[in-house]
Amino acid sequence: MTQGPQAGILNRPQEHEIVVAYDLVGTRDRATTVDTLELLRAVIERELRSDIDEIRDDTDKSQPFPETGELGYADNFNRSFLTVTVGNGLTAFDALEVPAALRPADLIAAPFEQIGLPAATTGTGDIVVQINTDNVYVAEHVQRRIEFTLAGRLQTVWAVRGDQRFTSRAGRASSGEARALIGFHDGTSNLDPAHLSEDSKLVFVDPANMADYPANPPGGPQPAPQPGQTGYGTTTSGPIFPDDLQSVPTSEPAWTAHGTYLFVQAIEFDMPEWDHSPLGTQETTVGRYKRSGASLDLDDLDANRKAPPAFATNPADTRVDPTSHIRKSNPRSGSDDNKRRIFRRGYPLIVADGTGTTRRGLIFQSFSRSISTQIGFILRAWMFNPNFPTPQAGPDRLNHFMHTICGGYYFVPPLLNAHRLTSWTIPPNSETPAAP
Ligand code: HEM
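^ thats the input. predicted complex w/ protoporphyrin IX containing FE below
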């Protein structure tokens, strides 16, 4: 058996997504939790086989019917490239009675308070499920069947639905051309773990390669880089890092190989204010031209969309504002910054629910082999650290428009058998996990 990552991470992103966080209900011990996860696995397995519940002639009409019906009553429905990705929140490891030595070493609580963007729904859930497909009905059916079949065992904490970015090209959105709701290309600068093994190493845990993790700098004021040196800030002032940055793990348990850390932040964006902001303000905020997507320190040409920004080789070049989104989230000036990159796989969010105008935003989602050296570092040391890259520089300019609806950090376990889509590992409580 070859272990491998879950299918919904590396495949071409489907048109729609529903992400749901669930809490375990009732007794929180390992036996009950494993039972619940096995029931969840069984439901998902049936969905991935397009298996509708049995329709029998002797149906007892005084009872609820096991099949909800919106996909009809014949098996083999078109799943439209359905994948279902399952992850575990921090609290699931308590319920599963996983000893410290066997826990994913980098999993921590959600960072929203620390970054000054508290979530409207504070719970992050024990379990997270990402349902991706080209057909919203199929996604809804998976969500509903989980809800129905596991009622009394899993309780929804939050659910958000996202839809693919826009692209003027026919067919599914290509990352190079797709636009976020804010009207800018999004996905331009991203890892490509499906095609590049170097990028894949930054996305999936490899317990044998922990020495490759960059060290985190100490908290407090950092030295100002002198001409010719790499480093953050200007020649006269360096950043101040928080004192409580997460420490970097030196080992991960063997079972986590091919697993990955997921960060979800469903963000409502202040679109009315954004739309009334001058074009120049929008471009300074993002750090790219709105039309071409090129970095603001290059010419405004389509051909420059993928070109590295000039600030990458000359940090003194501030035509891309040091607090712009692309520079705060990837400053490209520390010697280890390449290893801090994450794989983004977000979905724009459009919520029209009868309470005022449509709320628009993004389900930001990233996968990375660590939290401490990547997403957690990006959020806390760079983007939302007002003292980066220089004291009192301010947070990421995009921050002003962002409100967190819900989200969290999760560990997405590997598949024990890369060819069996529901063979995700239930985190073990001893060194020799049982095969599913
Ligand atoms: C509503 C919220 C957000 C919007 C609309 C948004 C939009 C964008 C846009 C337009 C770009 C530039 C295009 C590109 O390089 O792909 C970008 C880049 C990026 N964003 Fe966001 N973003 C949001 C939230 C976040 C969050 C919460 C993070 C957390 C880490 C993040 C991380 C990044 C990263 C790492 C890049 C690539 C920067 C680079 O390498 O040049 N974004 N985003």
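The chain has nine helices and eleven strands.
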